[in-house]
User: Fold these one by one.
Assistant:
Number 1:
Amino acid sequence: MYKQGKRFATSVMLVVMATLAVLLAACGSNPGSTTGSSKAPDDKQVFVYPVAGTPDLSDMDPAFAGGPIGPTLIYTGLVQLNEKQQLIDQLAQSHSVSADGLTWTFKLRPNLKFSDGSPLTSQDIVYSINRALEPALKSPYAMVYLGLIKDADKLQTGAVKTLVDDSLLAPTPDTVKIITKQKAAYFLQTMTYVTSYPVNKKLVDKYGKNFVDHLGEGAGAGPFIMSKYDQGRQMTFTPNPYYYGPKPALKKVIMAYYKDSETIYKVYETNQVSYAKIPTAKLASASNLPNNQFHLVPILGVQYYAMNYLAKPFNNIKIRQAFDLAINKDQIANKVLRGSAIPTNNIVPPGMPGHNPDLTGPAGVTSTKGDQAKAKQLFAEGLKEENLTLSSLPPITLSIYATSQDDTNQAVAVQQMWQEVLGVQVKIDTVDVNKLFSELDSTTNNPNGLQMWSSYWKADYPDPQNWLTTLFAPESSFDNYNYGNNHAKDIVDQKKALDLMRQADGEMDITTRLKLYNQAEQQVVNDAGWIPLYQMETGKALKPCVKGYDINAPFMPAPDSWSNIYISNDKPCTNV
């Protein structure tokens, strides 16, 4: 999840460094255990989930959803992922695919209803998918996650007016048929993303885009409804009385918004929230929290720097490689982040199907410490090829937004490495997140867009396609770096990588498919399509009174799993 809103998109347990193992030992086991715990009264069944940033109700529209847990509380999809990364039927009670791999049929559960009690049928599902893809809506994610649907591209250009009764079919009230434009082993995985989830047409007809201001009137079919919105502060969710699955045990989920992760941890310490991500500076002390509150959780995500292929001097592959190899990623992970990250040269991280442990960095460098001598050599060669000198080099700016002090500290450390190794003074521009995302969108096909920026991708679903084609194909809205869409001397190699990705996308044999993705990833890394920095190991704290919540899970609780999450009488707990 490129959590730009969404855009910065977790995994099975990884092999971690010895220092992290010590911390893991301190955190105890079985965080979701309910053994021997009595259930608190109903007025205490409140889970307070903190979020760093500013609330944005547009995230509660499935077509625009890119934020935290809110949309998955309100809406559900035909299929979803459970906490173990397994694909499960959700609104569908079964699914099948035709022999040619192009027609997917979903049989719905009986008696589905929206949260206002009105029926939810196959017509609502095809309507909602079509709505997300309508060009007038301008969803930033629809084509990324639903672009496999036949004629979706024609809908964007106006060649067809609707996909309903074209590639989106509702032959009976309990049957949905979706026709794809090609065989794609990962199609069901893309359908787990919230963009495809049905929204109540009645609300959209009544309020238009502003239906998100009226979510309590039956917007979705998920386990909760949004019952209250305190602008700029928090959202309150209460159980959906018409939910088709097992009902949530919690009486409220409060999504509370705070400035940053440091603030969130402070309010966790004073029992104002149920859960918190732990700032790096607090990891050592947090490991001593009583009652198994501390957990060190691997995340299926990678922090990286991106460079605009159209912006000088990053149109030159050797200069790109030099900026990568000048960085000692081990120092960033172990010193700046105090061992809370795993340095990497990979795009597809450990824990993902298709992770390549034998991948090398640019120019065949195997170490995550970089190669400073090689970086100097490549930089000199790149400058010469571009008829540049150090003095005539265009000013270079690294754009970041900081959700914690760690973000700033790592940028400053890398800035110093570039100065020491390459002799280049890179300016750090810390900007508002919304401004950065707006500038990123305008960087596509733009040599005058951003030069270099910091970002983070977290998996939307456990498939390497989500890390390669989704991110680097020029037709994707996430290819702000203009990979495969430039005039660099290595453009032929970039196009070869893209061909490998597209071949893998349609390959149904898993062994062949993953081999193709491995080859594509190696080429992208050679091209310095990204500068991968590290995979995060995130410290999390969970109050002992929260039972049944799998804090180690890579994804949010599946809709039915909320029935297992409750508040016990154990202390400490939140002051609600």
Number 2:
Amino acid sequence: METTWDLTPLFPSLESPEFQGAWEDLRRQIAHLKGLLEGETPLDEVLAALDALAEKTTPLSAYLYARFSANTEDEAALAKLSELEMLLLDYERLRPRLTRYLALQEPEEAGPYRILVEEARWEALHLMPEGEEVLSAELSLSGRQAWAKLHENLTSQITATVDGEELPITQVRNLYFRPEEAVRKKAYEAELRAWERHEVPLAYALNGVKGEAGVLNRRRGYRDDLEPTLAQNRITRKALWAMQEAVRESLPLFRRYYLLKARALGKERLDWWDLFAPLGKGRRWTLEEARGFLTEKLAALAPNAAKVAEAAFAERWMDLLPRKGKVGGAYCMPRGGGKSLILANYEESFEAVSTLAHELGHAYHNFALARVPASLRHVPMTLAETASIMNETLVVEAALQEASAEEGLEILDAYLQGAAQVVVDIHSRFLFESWVFAKRKERELSPREFKALMLKAQEEAYGEALATRHPYMWAVKGHYYGADFYNYPYTFGLLFGLAVYGQAKEDPAFATRYEDLLAASGLYPAKELAARFGFDLESVDFWRKGLKVLGEKVEALEARL
């Protein structure tokens, strides 16, 4: 099986006539939109231009970022990616004018594009003068975006030495999944030494990102640094606090899980390097096995999700294995035409199968979104996890039904590992980022201060369940650098996805509407979309339902130990 993606269906090369033609088409489309905004243009013409612009941007952006993220030493791709940012800056310069144009339209006349008008009306209240907005967009390339690139490029090339062998940091972090505690502990110690060697530039990067965001948020009149992210994620503050209340209530449940795991490992409390230690005795999952299993099991509830998964393997949408120079983690991005590109760092475990199922869920979501206009395919992070959580949960449930007792223990624990990360660890990240924003208003923070805040956040989230912490998680997670409060949407997505999964299992008619929900996820604010399917996001009880599913998994684990 080929394990690297095939980008030639997008473009044969940077020098190809196809790429050059697409580039010029994008340039002309931006100029066309600018011309429309300079006159008294009907709304339908502006909306059509926005759709065309999104259609032309997607394949260019996907191709260049895929090349760069698979090999951060690809200088040609990096240079062209920078040029694309400069080209798109011409569009960013138009955004204040576009926002004001849309804000003056009547929502009822916008049809399915109503949300764009409604959001423009709210955003117009927080716009700086046009000249300042344009200057902000121009400076972002040498400001926030440059700091984010520094983090991504630097961390992709960091190595650490374990038992005399120099390994990419992604491979070192994969050692946390090994059954031997000595190996996990060495990986932890080597990783901390590696981050310490690079803590100064990474601290400058984080200070730069949050400093710029704080200045702009105050200048635009937001009540706090959280408010613009609520708008971006299309949720209400009341919904977020309802979810946070349920999360805080659930922390004793997850601490119970950690103590159960510690007991199974023969320890009083877990150390940080034990969080991903396997329980039970799993087996190797080759990529061929993963492919067959995923396509078969996804078909049970969402046949089109299975078709998307098979296409991803057959048509080589994926770059699957870790290597030096490749960014860590996993992601999925649309490339146009309902198709996607997926990057992963696969290692032969069920956890990796689950991660692949997760990213293939995003690909299915992109497939569903292809039925709506391109400018309505933007899905907030809060809703963007719905299909991935559905995929992941479906695959785990299927695996548990077929697994031996020992393998079932491993699968159940791996599922709870992931859920705990999304609830407990992300709670610590939310606390950390909240404190960073508050302190960054006063001055820059040192690496020592970032470490202290991270340890404090982990103490509040994990409590007595852990004997050791990880002071450099602020350096590990690229989310802090690329966006603000990127953390809580994952928790939202997990618990919302579990609610959707539960509804689909109980109500076959809902399963047929599942793809409709995905397709509509860019058309409405989250509260309105959820209400259309019978969910109340501002009720703490709604979030408790998702956490109840996880509580049942903890009880199932306890019964196996």
Number 3:
Amino acid sequence: MSGMPQASGQGQQDLLPLYLDNRRQRFKSEINRLTGGDMVRMLAQEEQAADLAFLMAYVYAWHWLRQHVPDVYHAPLLAPFKGGSRAFLMALLQDSATAADFVRGYVRYWLATPGPGPAQREQCMRLLARQGDEPEALVKHVLGLWEGLGVFREPDKKVYARIAAEERSRYGEMLEEADRERLELVDKIREKPPKVLKFRKLGMIPHMGCPQTCRHCMFIWRPFVKGQEQADQLYDLVDAHTDSVLFTGGDLTRHMAHFYKAIRRMRHLRTFAILLNGDFAHDRPAVRAMLGEMQKALASRPGSWPRAQVLLQISFDEFHQEVLIDKHGRLKERIPVAKIANIVEEAPGYPDIQLALLHKQNRLNFSMDLFRQGVFGRLAAELGRRGQQVQVLSTAPSERMKTNPATGQRGQLVKDASFVLSSCPDSPILLTSSTIDAYGRAEILEPGEAVREKEYLADVLARPRSPGEGFDTDLMFWFNGWATLFSAVHICLGNVYEDGADKVLARQAKDPLSRALADFDRRLLNFYAEKRGDLQERIEKATGPHHLFHVITQDADMRLHLTRRLLQQPL
């Protein structure tokens, strides 16, 4: 990353503080995490782990900077930390050409400092003594320990490529031999499905893809949906079994015709939801064109049909709106906040379209700072430049206490909110937030960047079952015919075009694996451990119960084994 130009020009200068603030917060969170106990745990097998932890945390910091921040931005990023007792550390982080140089400088600093001194000096002296008071021997020892940790061995792109290959392999198993054998077992279950089968909602995936590469996305590789462009069978199926549908699959901006057709065709539906990333909103005319088409489709519905509305969900968080560096070394917003502001300004003019911003929970959710700082603060500032004032109408907390990733303190966070523009006081806009689980790119997300559900996981693992808290087992229909669980799209119940809708729906009603996932049935962990020896490792790495139950069911052979065992030991 060295040699990249510094930000220049007004637009670049406006983005530079945002970029530095984000990287600085991440840097600080990682240091606090490691010096707060995580590095001691990483070095648990080392006799001198307690003495090594502080130094190793800053060896990590040296590598982190070079992995995530171009050299030219090291100085401004570190500037606020250069006062006080750790000024020498910041200078070493900035100026050391290699990790070895950093460790040498660290040892040299404490050797030149009279003692008895700070705890870090005494730690360094004990480490030196263990190496025969030979500084180079200590440098070699520290670098050897670092190599053993296996951190930052390859750039993120290579890590993503490996995860993508694994994802591609797993989706390649979809409805192959193991899945087919599993579904045959489900078909043999003698249980009549309900005569009238209604779902709270159903989903449709016309296409799987997104031009963005957000760092928290659960997908790196997305299955190619080679569907029937005239998927009338799926439209009719959804229309017969729910009054609410969600169109998703990444970003559907280039596939809106399917959504408009659904509005015009599905007579029984009242809510048509769609998830977009907002990148279409280049200017307000572009937004009016999109919303106008939605309104036109709604207006075309016969008067005898139920009144319907569109729920327009727009991804809006510190990742979709992240300030990053492009291949030319220039700062840019992944999806500019100005585009979201265009949508927020236009949406109140369409009463049949409810706008909802979808946000990922982070440290700001634990106070009203959520609306003053971060991405929402940037949105409010952008709207303010346009003469608009944002007023928060209401907030609602999460049902559970959660842990602030910045402080480690437990508390309630703001999960949902509504706000209005002063110019449109009767047109509320929704904001709803959710957690991030370590799927896809989020597998290497730093712990301090988002709220995790470790305590919730511990609570779930302490119970035999957690009815109603598990996976959403409503159905998601892909245009290639797949029918998967709504919040576990790796669990497929067949192909509607090949198996028929009745068979797929019957499977959904009686599949023991789907039921077990819906209730976080703890037996699944025991059954998993019968075939794999890494259960404890899976639990330790899990970001929450949904993540854990996802990873233990992501392989087709394991899904088959779990289904067999559930059939052998019914509740």
